[in-house]
Design brief:
heterodimer; A: Ubiquitin-like (UB roll); 5-stranded mixed beta sheet; globular; B: alpha/beta; 2,3-Dihydroxybiphenyl 1,2-Dioxygenase, domain 1; 2 domains; 17 strands
Chain lengths: 114, 315
Amino acid sequence: MSFQITVENSGETFRCAAEVHVLEAMEKAVCKGIPVGCRNGGCGACKVQVQAGRYATRKMNRAVISAEDEVRGIVLACKIYPQSDLTLTAIGPMARVTAPCGSAPSGLDSGTHA
Amino acid sequence: MALTGVLRPGHVAIRVLEMGPALKHYIDVLGLIETARDEKGRVFLKAWDEHDHHSVVLRETDEAGMDYLGWKVDSPATLKKLAGDIEKSKLCSDFEWIPKGEHPETGERFRFTIPTGHVMELFAEKKQVGNNCGTEGPNVNPDPWPDGLKGISPSRFDHCLLYGDDLDGSVKFFREVLGFGIAEQVMAGPKKDFMIGAFLSCSNKAHDVAFIRQPVKGKFHHASFELGSWEKVLRAGDILSRNKTSIDIGPTRHGITRGETIYFFDPSGNRNEVFSGGYIYYPDEPAITWTEEELGPGIFYHDRKLNEAFLSVFT
């Protein structure tokens, strides 16, 4: 089962399976909207605000995601696993507004590689 | 003996989010050897060619990063003398004597916090358990390396790179109180007189600890482990990819220290490095200076530019 992930600040969409973390699915889709750091829940580079959707989480570094953050949907993309379609915005220290991953070869930016 | 005072970085204590994946990484992939666990759940590890009981301590908690870095000194008398010097220097804070045995097989440790916010320790005694190379008893007629090594299997824990704000204070402390030399420095500003990076040595190594100025306290960039050759760095990359370990960059070369390197992350996002090469440092040599504009090739000699993660990704 896979779900559609929408990254608001880049306009990118990609598919993510329920057992794959969102950052891994984004990298495999050659999208760039969420900055990539350690990929392991430690550094906070892939911090996102989830606007809509349900997800499971794994343990994240409390130095970068507080318990209050987690309740408010501020989480690390490398530690969330979708349980529905998700809409989110990258808010980590390297985050920026970017163009959709249109420079990638066609077919890599939505759905086909999830 | 010619090498006196502070001998080497003797242990690094790393916080991990989950011990199970951390042990798979540090034992099966990196190839350290477990030497003890304690009642607090901490796990103690060493690299194969280290004689002392442990050089890496893992502790499971909610925050990633480094708890402290411990330095081996040449004798209990030196430990007492340096502890006094440190207190008198007024550069450090939070002094504490950690009793013998708090780390297994380890004597008392003197703990303090340096101006960049990192917790450091000095200790003089740790049981020597050997490198398992001796053929007729420990250290007698040894083989060049032991059987049964796993994973990347570096020879030793070598150094850390740390991020903090008061670089001047920590550099002054290591040079003037502990007697380190400055092997390489990165200078910024119109007159190139503002230090933003320092690579410090207490030995013949190009660095035993390095600092980069960042507006943070007590942050950990990486812990590094030594390999004997460039080919072993390439092999490390193979092992990391095979295990789907998160690789940061490399294999490549550093301009600073000339080391051949690969950076990667443990399962809690703490950066590790394995490297080979570099050069022999002597304390009478002039410091090598890199200018801010050339920091790119200084850090990654082939790419000639920093990746954004180098400055932004730490624990």
